[in-house]
Design a protein that fits this description.
The chain is an alpha/beta fold. 38% of the residues lie in helices and 23% in strands.
């Protein structure tokens, strides 16, 4: 649970940030990004991200365990106080928190958001209810109504005619994508569960989009690798096994047309992507991919705090 934050009151946040990056760069790895945020990373992987804000320097520390967190906090705070020869600075870290306890969207904001987007129609409402009845706790894998509306809007804005979906579940997102396709458009939907996707088929028929959806029950990587190796995909939605996200991303991106978009769901993993204490395979894979996409010069990317985190990557 090693995540912590400190807000240091000062009229010189930019100056101190530059001093910390410059000085600590002799004994640790330091970087400054295009937004002016500085990062200090110790050999253990523990890091502190520093952001200069009006009247304060914001420090966000993260590490794999409490000992490493304490170490990076001590290094940064000690040097910061030493640099402040003209004022007395106080660095007070919050108690460590577990990334899984973070709420990207407060429940009150969440409720307001849902009430102020285009509501799901009866078919989508019935599909969501049928999913809850048939899959129990697994129903949480279904995209929410607002995320479904976002998918439909993105597909329409792109004028997409060929879409790919990796991870169908019971077909809610498939229906939303298919509805947005241009005339004659097709959706290639990849999944391995014939039982759950059958629920989707019923509702695709009701919605009048079944003829636009080509459902493939097979390992998604096999399906993707069998596609023509040329840029022909307009939009893709990835929402399947997280450890395979990097492979799905690469197979799709090489076949995505310039201007096309890859949408990746669950990039926050319930806050666990932020917390280095989580070290299971899917946590590591998602964390690495998030960093990779942010630096990938083949795309322009933005991560949105929609539900469990959604990244949009547009191919240049």
């Amino acid at each position: 649970m090693p995540l912590s934050i400190a807000h240091v009151t000062t009229d010189r946040p930019e100056r101190y940030l530059k001093q910390l990056v410059s000085h600590l760069g002799h004994k640790a790895s330091t970087t400054v990004d295009s937004q002016g945020r500085g990062t200090v990373t110790l050999g253990s992987g523990a890091n502190c991200v520093m952001t200069a804000r009006p009247g304060q320097l914001e420090l966000v520390s993260a590490a794999a365990d409490a000992e490493a967190l304490s170490r990076v906090q001590d290094v940064v705070a000690r040097h910061l106080v030493r640099f402040a020869t003209q004022e007395e600075l106080t660095v007070e870290w919050t108690a460590p928190v577990d990334g899984a306890e973070l709420e990207p969207v407060h429940p009150l904001v969440d409720s307001y958001l849902l009430r102020h987007c285009t509501p799901a129609d009866q078919v989508l409402h019935d599909l969501a209810e049928r999913t809850r009845e048939a899959t129990g706790q697994a129903a949480g894998m279904q995209v929410s109504a607002d995320e479904g509306a976002l998918l439909t809007m993105l597909v329409r804005m792109l004028g997409a005619k060929y879409a790919v979906e990796v991870g169908v579940f019971t077909g809610y997102s498939s229906l939303c994508i298919a509805r947005g396709l241009a005339e004659g458009g097709r959706l290639l939907a990849c999944d391995t569960n014939a039982e759950w996707t059958a629920i989707g088929r019923e509702h695709w028929e009701r919605a009048g989009v079944a003829d636009r959806i080509d459902l493939r029950i097979a390992p998604a990587l096999d399906t993707l690798r069998a596609l023509p190796d040329e840029p022909h995909i307009d939009i893709a939605f990835i929402d399947a096994d997280k450890q395979s996200y990097p492979a799905y991303y690469e197979e799709i991106l090489r076949r995505l047309r310039p201007g096309g978009v890859v949408v990746l769901d669950n990039v926050l993993l319930g806050g666990r992507s932020l917390d280095p204490a989580y070290q299971e395979e899917h946590h590591l894979a998602m964390r690495r991919l998030n960093e990779f996409i942010a630096a990938d010069d083949r795309v322009d990317a933005v991560m949105l705090p929609v539900r469990d985190g959604v990244t949009l990557a547009r191919k240049r």
